[in-house]
Write a structure and sequence with these properties.
Structural class: alpha+beta
Number of helices: 3
GO molecular function: DNA binding
Shape: elongated
Order of helices and strands: EHHEEH
Oligomer: single chain
Largest sheet: 3 strands, antiparallel
Strand content: 15-25%
Number of strands: 3
Strand order of the largest sheet: 1-3-2
Protein name: Excisionase
Amino acid sequence: MPDTLTGRYVTQSTAAEYLNVTDRTIRNLIARGDLTGYRLGARAIRVDRAELDALLTPIPTAGDHR
C-alpha cells in the first residue's frame, strides 16, 4: 500500500516530506513532545496528519494589521 497523505496516519518519512524537513527533525519533534508518534508493531511509527497541519499554523507578521 503506498504511503500518501490520504490516510489519517503517515510514516515519519512522509511527514518529513510534507513539512519539507528531514526525518531526523520529525524524530526530534516526537522526542520533544511537539508531535505525537504512534507505534505500529515493533518498529513502525506513524504520525497523525492533523498534528502536522497544526504545526503549519501561520504566524502574524509586522504587515498584518487587520
